[in-house]
Write a structure and sequence with these properties.
- The complex is a heterodimer of chains A (210) and B (106).
- With 210 residues, chain A is mostly helical.
- Chain A has a single domain, classed as Cytochrome c oxidase, subunit III, four-helix bundle (Four Helix Bundle (Hemerythrin (Met), subunit A), Up-down Bundle).
- Chain A has five helices and two strands.
- The longest helix of chain A has 33 residues.
- Chain A is globular.
- The relative contact order of chain A is 0.16.
- Chain B has one domain.
- In chain B, helix 2 runs antiparallel to helix 3.
- Chain B is flat, with a radius of gyration of 20 Å.
- The chains are: A mainly alpha (210), B mainly alpha (106).
- At the A-B interface, helix 1, helix 2 and helix 5 of A face helix 1, helix 2, helix 3, helix 4 and helix 5 of B.
Chain lengths: 210, 106
């Protein structure tokens, strides 16, 4: 046995100590986003396959008002993403008051989305009589996949609102750093990103004109 | 090394660029809604909608989520695996298409 002290061989990959040049919170959020993407992908595939398997899949969304309504919801989410970017930008430049206000604007967009989405759900449940298990068109998979998919997304939006509220109050009190706002922004943009697939695949593909 | 990381973290797009990206995203959404209004045949509709959604997702990831300004190693660690796994889910498409044909007539 050698008495020499072992020495770590120098790294050959030249990645350095910080290969991603990013902080651990941000990398952690990215890992979460990737795994959550797979959850949503699986649900979108489940919805699409259920639809392909059932030729009599319903088209419950009238262009006016349901599609117009969901387009406004899309506008709310897209705009809230822009305000979130502005919040991160302001925070990177050390402007806490402005960053806090932009986060509040983001929350307004998110809250508008949730309110509009819930009223859309209420119309489906009360007027069209769609539940997760039954519907007038005798395609129970429609309700099951629709409510699971949009419900999981809405849950993400609500969690995002709580997350942003915590970040906003911290920013106003001088508590969080720019990277914390950026990480919350990553989550918020992801919620927006998922809607960019749900909106066309679930709503626009089931639009009823005239 | 950490000084470099700090430097990288602050490189990014201007607010003008973000506003442009937002505008493009809205315009693409407008095109999607127009397609729904015109009642384009299902297969064409699905193909175009997925194409537009992927473009929108790429814009959000690149600019809003800042990935364009991160190191390439971060992208390579996260996305090839994600895309591969999503493509793998297509494996059931054949079954989904076959089931309505196999169903016995009522």
């Amino acid at each position: 046995m050698s008495s020499q002290v072992s020495v770590a061989t120098p790294s050959v990959w030249e990645g350095g100590r910080s290969p991603y040049a990013t902080n651990s919170k941000k990398f952690g959020m990215w890992l979460f986003i990737i795994s959550d993407s797979l959850t949503f992908s699986a649900m979108l595939f489940a919805y699409t396959y259920s639809r392909v398997t059932n030729p009599d899949w319903p088209k419950p969304f009238d262009f006016t008002p349901a599609i117009i309504f969901s387009t406004i919801m899309t506008f709310c989410l897209l705009s809230s993403s822009l305000t979130m970017v502005m919040a991160v930008h302001a925070m990177n430049h050390g402007n806490r008051a402005s960053a806090g206000k932009w986060i509040l604007a983001t929350m307004t967009g998110g809250a508008a989305f949730v309110v509009l989405h819930l009223s859309e759900w209420m119309k489906l449940i009360n007027v069209e009589h769609v539940t997760p298990f039954t519907n007038p068109w005798n395609v129970p998979l429609f309700g099951g996949t629709f409510f699971a998919l949009t419900g999981l997304h809405m849950t993400h939006v609500v969690i995002g609102l709580i997350y942003l509220a915590i970040i906003a109050q911290g920013v106003f009190r001088g508590k969080f750093k720019a990277e914390d706002v950026e990480v919350s922004g990553l989550y918020w943009h992801f919620v927006d990103l998922v809607w960019m697939f749900i909106f066309p695949l679930v709503y626009l593909m089931s639009a009823r004109v005239g | 090394m950490s000084a470099h990381a700090e430097e990288v973290a602050h490189v990014g797009a201007t607010t003008g660029t973000f506003a442009k990206v937002w505008f493009v995203l809205l315009a693409l959404t407008g095109v999607e809604v127009l397609l729904a209004y015109l009642q384009v045949p299902t297969t064409i509709m699905l193909t175009v909608l997925i194409g537009l959604s992927v473009i929108k997702a790429a814009l959000i990831i690149a600019y809003f989520m800042h990935l364009k300004f991160e190191r390439l190693s971060l992208f390579l660690t996260l996305f090839p695996m994600l895309i591969f796994c999503i493509v793998l889910m297509l494996i059931f498409l054949g079954d989904a298409v076959r089931i309505p044909v196999m169903r016995p007539p009522v």
